[in-house]
């Protein structure tokens, strides 16, 4: 449900001996793959298969972790996909039993591999079984699109996402560290679907996302505004922001630290980490007729800097 009208004024991501013979084919592939990691391949084995390909599940294409299953012909797949293929090998269609590929599990246990985000700058080398956890938290991993109005699956670095938000989502872009938004809604009682609005601000050489939306908090409809930082949490802590809404001699003020876009939009909203306005108060701020939402939200962003003389943090406001 879109807002009817928005005005903005800006003022400034080895086999055991007892292992079965049907592992020989898989183990031969391992020798070929080992050559690509600096090991000497077995005689007559051509190193044509990479370790990443060897440890990739043919069904979901994710890396496989124990228990790794295989059919009688040596084709492997991960345990989660084994239940999805109706007990048939996805490669040769032979019936699957309960065979563990112990050779592949042992090789995986001995591997140390670079992070998959190495091309983006991550220098780390990690044991295979801990690499996945690191990659899910890697500071070099791409950011998710912060747009909250749809399930956008686009990822990338910050410059790419800024261009994506502007060109694909038609998001308003503003320069400056202060802002003045006016939100108008002809029927403020309709909040069955989330009403969302996103504006991107550029200041201090960084980008910030200002969200405003309506949703049901329990049985009560509320409006919420909050700021997210387009970068990692560590950098987000260098900034503060304030939001203010009011009329008729009353005002509500929120002051906080912007959340990183590493935290999903829904996570921030459900934590109530922002300016929350109950509908009755929002209608009071809108005027006496209480039939139309007319909210003016003002705010500013600043960077905390430490004084070299006093050691006290003082706000650094953009000009």
From TrEMBL:
Note whether Phosphoprotein occurs among the keywords: no
Q: Which residues form the signal peptide?
A: none
Pathway involvement? Protein modification; protein ubiquitination
Q: Which Gene3D superfamilies match?
A: Apoptosis, Tumor Necrosis Factor Receptor Associated Protein 2, Chain A, Zinc/RING finger domain, C3HC4 (zinc finger)
Family named by the database record: Belongs to the SINA (Seven in absentia) family.
Xref: PANTHER family? E3 UBIQUITIN PROTEIN LIGASE SIAH, E3 UBIQUITIN-PROTEIN LIGASE SINAT3
What's the protein name? Answer: RING-type E3 ubiquitin transferase
Originating organism = Dendrobium catenatum
Annotated gene: SINAT3
